Amino acid sequence: MSMFWTIWISVITLGSIIGCFFLLRWCLTNFAGVEEGKSMGHQFDGIEEVNNPLPKWWTILFYVTIVFGLIYLVLYPGLGSYKGLWDWKSSNQNIQSLEESRQARQDAIDSGDYVQYDVELAKAAERFDPIFEAFAKVPVEELAFDDDAVKIGRRLFLQNCAQCHGSDARGQNGGFPNLTDEDWLYGGSGAKIKETLINGRQAAMPAWLDAMGEQGIEEVVAYVLSLSGRKVDQQLADKGEARFAVCAACHGQDGKGNQALGAPNLTDNIWLYGGSKRAVTETLTYGRNGVMPSFKQTLGEDKIHVVAAYVYSLSHQPE
């Protein structure tokens, strides 16, 4: 923080405290010269004004808060770039990545700095890490039916995954899959779900406009829509079937996809980016490049194991 802002904040903060002190002194001054408890000579509607100063306990409390505020500002950071005598910090500032955060935590430990957030993280790790370590020893498919693990996994999901997949995990058009059905791009076993969370996924649906042209894309769209039982122009679909050979390398000759590549099944009428004619045309014309981030560094493998169990449980409810 620059010296200008340090001075600006200090003047306003200290000025407010000093102003409160003088305001209190002003309120305690008997400007009327009337003895305490005597009438001020004013009466309205049967109510007489009496010279009653602030109660002693109230006055003392005001003084205490003023003194407390000054002591706090000496001990803790609160006046711009001044760090306080105790060199206390709420958190490591100006962090832009997980790697920087870890390095800042280590630097604080090495230098003996007290960082409140780091202390709270350490306490949480001491308390909860053994719980996650115990959960990690149970297979995902079995852990998915442990009520406590599922509740914890749901909280972690809401904190880290709901932004894309929704709080109900049903996803949304735009490349965010529904996690409550049994349609999986890369496989829905416990191991595959963990693999997705640990490593992330990078989709690569190429654009076909240059290769096929607008007419060719229209034909392939008709054929692709027909695979899921949609009514289309059959002549276009027949021509599109021949062109589909280049798509079969990923989606298979039958269009049922390939989980090893993350190529979706085109026959089930479940669409990641929307199944309208316009949406499918956009996909073929411009391609798609969805990204599922890796959570290995964010959560760690033990927490990922619990999240995977929660996700697995969504499509494997007990009968």
Summarize the structure.
This protein has about 325 residues and is mainly alpha-helical. The chain has helices at about 5-30, 55-75, 100-110, 115-135, 140-145, 145-160, 160-165, 190-200, 210-225, 235-245, 250, 275-285, 295-300, 300-315; strands spanning about 40-45, 45-50, 90, 115, 200, 290.
What does this structure look like?
- The strands form three sheets. Strands 1-2 form a two-stranded antiparallel ribbon. The protein has a two-stranded parallel ribbon with strand order 3-4. Strands 5-6 form a two-stranded antiparallel sheet.
- The model has no long low-confidence stretch (mean pLDDT 92).
- The protein has helices at 3-28, 56-75, 98-111, 116-136, 140-143, 147-160, 162-165, 190-199, 209-227, 234-243, 248-251, 277-286, 296-299, 301-314; strands at residues 39-44, 47-50, 88-89, 114-115, 201-202, 291-292.
- The chain has three domains: 1-22 and 50-87 and 110-115, no CATH class; 129-202 and 293-314, Orthogonal Bundle (Cytochrome Bc1 Complex, Chain D, domain 2); 209-289, Orthogonal Bundle (Cytochrome Bc1 Complex, Chain D, domain 2), CATH 1.10.760.10.
- Helix 4 crosses helix 14 and helix 9 runs antiparallel to helix 12 (277-286).
- The chain has 14 helices and six strands.
- It has 319 residues and is mainly alpha-helical.
